[in-house]
Sequence to fold (380 residues):
Amino acid sequence: MRRYTAILLTCVLALPAACAKSDGTQNTVVPLASASASPSATKGKLNVYADAAANLLRADVKADKALVYVPNTQSDDVYVIDPATYKVVDHFYGGAEPQHVVPSYDLRTLYVTSSRVPGGSVLPIDPRTGKPGKIIPVQDVYNLYFTPDGKYAWVVAEAYQRIDFYDPKSWKLVKSANFPQCEGINHMDFTVDGKLALASCEFANRMVVIDVASGKLVRDLPLDVVPDGMPQDTRLLPDGSAFLTADMHANGVYVFDAQANRRTGFIPTGRGAHGIYFSRDGKRAFVSNRDEGSVSVLDVATRKPITKWQIPNGGSPDMGAVSADGKTLWLAGRYHGEVYAIDTANGHLRARIPVGSGPHGLLVWPQPGQYSLGHTSNIR
Fold:
């Protein structure tokens, strides 16, 4: 909120040759033209995350260094954690107000997105070594997504209510799409066919549906559960039948139909509902309730809460990801300068790790899957 106020005031499995080492400043995009058109299925049932099942790592990704990257928005650095020992093993400058660490579409580069306006940047990290490259100036990279065909990197310029289309190889701006009704545009996901994106408007109590090819507004969906709603993370259910969107002020999760035509339901979870992550088998959804220091576990099939895990002695679980083996949910403690490692079997807190100030969109790497749609773990 301080940042927002300030601006108002001022591959199908890649062959080794296709995954040649990057120079640290750009992606090597592996075309996946059929990825969004033909999502994987398990026993005849659609599962858009089937290729991101437990330990299903691409051959080239399997060789990457196992690390957890934590961007700290207030101390402007990235802490690096060894997930085996829960120890901080490195830290480096992440840009001005680093927000998220995002795997590239081809999974061969990790990007730290930074957004302190009027500047901004992406900082490439080589996942083989865990070491950063050279910062690339890109304006207001609050969040970063990739179109399902891999053609564009979508920079979510939250402060300017804009999505900027970049060439993911050169980081040259191609075009921009403006959404004046969508104050605080930030999180999104894509329909099964990859033609539409549903995005949250954090400060406008509404959602917008975007045509992926053109970037044009298709429709907007005002929210009505509370008058001051604050929608956040948005994810497509594994079977593609609906979207979930967490809302920090409504204290729960909205449900939208598969084409984002309308809101179809609401699931109460807890105060400050913020991030949404799926178990590796696609049967459960983990919702971080930032304001009450808890994680709600939902049954994906019934869309009902199963249980709630409370972080001992409080906390502020925010963004993160599930480990490759599916056994640990990693979340940043946004207001406590720490990271939580939570056992996905029973909610037991495995570790509480001190990091920098204002930890936000941490990334666990490596991750299963064939290609990344962006954010911290939207991999299919």
Summary: The chain has two helices and 31 strands.
